[in-house]
């Protein structure tokens, strides 16, 4: 695909610990040019044959005709076959998007190929164009992306949709340069994938290919020609949390940049003037840092203001896909994308004499960079302050100064100014990320109960909790407790208590007070599980839920410290028959789990602790396999129950 725009993919996400991180299993998204062909790995219980997905790519051909000035003509031709009913709604529409200021597009073919061989052309009435323009002929502020939507007629299972189009780039994204990166995943079916490129001899262009066939095929009439092909006929089961296919999968990259230093230099030449502070920015910087004496205190004060007061808004109008607005424009409008955020923050820092630079990063699931410096591997921009040796991302308003959101952690980065080789953002520290859960509950003689659970979260867990709680309105709180109780098999009511989520801190507290109508079956005999009646999103059972997952590629992970205590006061009529056994064991890599269960009269106390010492944000399949026995043993202990009569 063509180089992607820089946006903000980081945001906040539900925390992930180690091999058991919580992440939705993403179905395969394929077909370049934004048509969605979904597939998912797995084997049906009723049919042992491998599942090939909801759709598959029978053909995907992308050709790049590059000119000496870095402009190019990209021709895409794909045929996507519908394999199941679920695939119909995903394949019956196609999309062609491009910058209206930098390029034009030409539709070459669009039709439905019926399984009996009939060809149904897409009628004129089935096309729709969305054009983003400014007012009264002015250039658009946010985006000039023009999108053509194609509605394919009469699509059924067994049919294929065919789309062929051409995008003519009149102006390169970065002056005089061209790059692209195309990647393929083992989790998608490709019958026939082909990437080709030609460029004039005068254009110094590098190429990198991995796990694909082909290479340079000829040199004729002053041009060089390359061609690569790829096939993947079966897909394995989906894997939760797997890293981007850019890190491990088949891919092709090409670039006119000699190295990442050259890429940084060209990029910096386009953006360096944007962060020059004017009088208004200097005045604001002075006001915001009043009382802040050290450079770190000043940088933190400026960071806090930008995160709270500059809203996120996309900027991909023309060269806005990579070039930010002027800092003064961002300040005036109080909005901007990641590039605009970094530019304004850098301008405020400069007004206080604090040097900084914008930083190219992949804020999604890619943790490596190709050897060939393709701009398209980057999709985010953050800030680095050399004097503080500190990275900052002002687009994530719930992340405190000095920390990074998970999407930015443990990533290779390119500093636009002061480039000194590929740098890395710091990984999350397992000792900084954790949760402490304290539950106390009193059981009444009729089996009802009341009590309270308090959560204390730190690090990334705190960031994500603040983000979630910022959307929890007072009229939603009682329903949250009711549904939380119901999820654990209880009927009852309750209230929520929480810290102000808008205050940035490394620690966040929240909790629930509850009343349950059916906590215990009295008179017994019976058993009750030792767990909070309302689970938080970082409870031990949740965090270990993916321990059985199969991994064949690297995946996102994170270490943490987790503490849970549970105290229940039983009525006099209840007599304890059996208590769980205490446990203490460790994994080969240093993770430790322990549990203690005690009875003192009518009071039951349980304490569970787990330290996961994972040092970074990427784990290997070998680590997952080694950790599995430890995780399964911990899960067994979490199912422990107290027997009573």
Terminal residue distance:
66 Å
Q: How many structural domains does the protein architecture include?
A: 3
The total count of helices amounts to: 11
Average pLDDT, rounded to a whole number, is: 87
Shape: globular
Low-confidence stretches: 1-48, 316-320
Major sheet description: 8 strands, mixed
Q: Biggest sheet: strands side by side, in what order?
A: 7-6-10-4-3-12-15-14
Q: How many beta-strand elements?
A: 36
- The radius of gyration is 28 Å
CATH class of the largest domain equals Mainly Beta
Give the CATH topology of the largest domain.
Immunoglobulin-like
Approximately what portion of the residues adopt beta-strand conformation?
A: 25-35%
Structural class: alpha+beta
The CATH architecture category of the largest domain equals Sandwich
What is the fold's blueprint, element by element?
Layout: E1 28-30, E2 37-39, E3 55-66, E4 72-82, H1 85-91, E5 93-99, E6 103-113, E7 119-121, E8 127-130, E9 145-151, E10 160-169, E11 179-183, E12 190-200, E13 206-210, E14 213-220, E15 223-232, H2 245-248, E16 251-255, H3 260-271, H4 279-288, H5 295-309, E17 311-312, H6 327-333, E18 335-336, H7 338-351, E19 357-361, E20 380-385, E21 390-392, E22 412-415, E23 423-424, E24 434-443, E25 449-458, H8 460-470, H9 474-487, E26 492-498, E27 507-516, E28 526-529, H10 540-543, E29 555-556, E30 560-569, E31 576-578, E32 583-586, E33 592-600, E34 603-612, E35 618-619, H11 621-638, E36 641-644
Parallel strand pairs: 3-12, 17-18, 24-30
Antiparallel strand pairs: 1-2, 3-4, 4-10, 5-9, 6-7, 6-10, 8-9, 11-16, 12-15, 13-16, 14-15, 19-20, 19-22, 20-21, 22-23, 24-25, 25-27, 26-27, 28-36, 29-35, 30-34, 31-36, 32-33, 33-34
Helix pairs in contact: 4-7, 5-7, 6-7
């Amino acid at each position: 695909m063509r180089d992607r725009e820089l946006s903000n993919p980081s945001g906040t996400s539900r925390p992930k610990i180690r091999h058991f991180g919580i992440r939705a299993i993403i179905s395969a998204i394929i077909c370049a040019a934004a048509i969605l062909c979904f597939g998912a790995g797995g084997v049906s219980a009723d049919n042992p044959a491998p599942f090939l997905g909801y759709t598959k790519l029978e053909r995907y051909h992308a050709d790049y005709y590059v000119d000496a000035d870095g402009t190019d003509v990209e021709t895409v031709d794909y045929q996507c076959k519908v394999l199941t009913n679920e695939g119909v709604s995903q394949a019956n529409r196609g999309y062609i998007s491009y910058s209206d200021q930098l390029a034009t597009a030409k539709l070459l073919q669009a039709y439905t190929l019926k399984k009996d061989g009939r060809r149904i052309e897409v009628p004129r009435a089935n096309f729709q164009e969305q054009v983003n323009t400014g007012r009264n002929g002015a250039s658009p502020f946010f985006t000039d992306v023009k999108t053509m939507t194609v509605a394919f007629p009469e699509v059924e299972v067994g049919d294929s949709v065919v789309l062929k189009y051409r995008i003519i780039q009149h102006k390169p994204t970065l002056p005089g340069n061209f790059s692209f990166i195309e990647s393929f995943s083992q989790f998608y079916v490709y019958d026939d994938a082909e990437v080709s490129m030609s460029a004039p001899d005068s254009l110094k262009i590098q190429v990198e290919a991995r796990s694909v066939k082909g290479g340079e095929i000829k040199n004729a009439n002053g041009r060089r020609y390359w061609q690569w092909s790829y096939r993947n006929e079966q897909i394995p089961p989906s894997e939760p949390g797997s890293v981007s296919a850019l890190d491990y999968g088949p891919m092709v990259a090409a670039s006119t940049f000699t190295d990442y230093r050259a890429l940084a230099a060209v990029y910096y030449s386009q953006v360096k003037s944007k962060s020059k502070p004017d009088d208004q920015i200097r005045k604001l910087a002075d006001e915001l840092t009043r009382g802040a004496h050290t450079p770190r205190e000043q940088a933190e004060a400026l960071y806090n203001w930008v995160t709270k007061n500059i809203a996120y808004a996309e900027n991909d109008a023309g060269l806005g896909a990579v070039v930010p607005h002027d800092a003064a424009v961002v300040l005036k409008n109080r909005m901007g994308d990641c590039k605009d955020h970094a530019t304004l923050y850098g301008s405020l820092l400069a007004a206080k004499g604090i040097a900084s630079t914008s930083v190219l990063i992949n804020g999604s699931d890619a943790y490596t960079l190709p050897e060939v410096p393709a701009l398209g591997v980057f999709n985010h921009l953050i800030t680095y302050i050399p004097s503080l040796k500190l990275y900052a991302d002002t687009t994530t308003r719930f992340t405190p100064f000095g920390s990074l959101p998970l999407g930015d952690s443990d990533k290779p980065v390119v500093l636009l100014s002061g480039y000194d080789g590929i740098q890395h953002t710091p990984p999350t520290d397992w000792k900084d990320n954790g949760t402490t859960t304290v539950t106390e509950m009193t059981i009444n003689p009729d089996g009802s109960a009341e009590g309270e659970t308090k959560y204390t979260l730190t690090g990334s867990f705190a960031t994500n909790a603040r983000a979630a709680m910022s959307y929890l309105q007072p009229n939603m709180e009682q329903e949250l407790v009711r549904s939380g109780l119901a999820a654990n098999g209880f009927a009852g009511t309750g209230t929520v208590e929480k810290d102000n989520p808008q205050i940035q801190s490394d620690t966040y507290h929240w909790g629930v007070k509850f009343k349950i109508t059916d906590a215990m079956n009295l008179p017994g005999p019976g058993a009750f599980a030792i767990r909070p009646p309302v689970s938080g999103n970082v409870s031990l059972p949740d965090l270990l839920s993916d321990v059985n997952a199969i991994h064949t590629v690297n995946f996102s992970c994170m270490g943490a410290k987790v503490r849970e205590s549970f105290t229940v006061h039983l009525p006099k009529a209840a007599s304890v028959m059996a208590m769980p056994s205490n446990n203490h064991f460790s994994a080969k890599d240093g993770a430790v789990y322990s549990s203690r269960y005690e009875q003192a009269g009518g009071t039951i106390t349980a304490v569970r602790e787990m330290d996961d010492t994972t040092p970074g944000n990427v784990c290997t399949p070998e680590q997952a396999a080694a950790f599995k026995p430890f995780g399964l043993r911990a899960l067994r202990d979490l199912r422990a129950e107290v027997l009573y009569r």
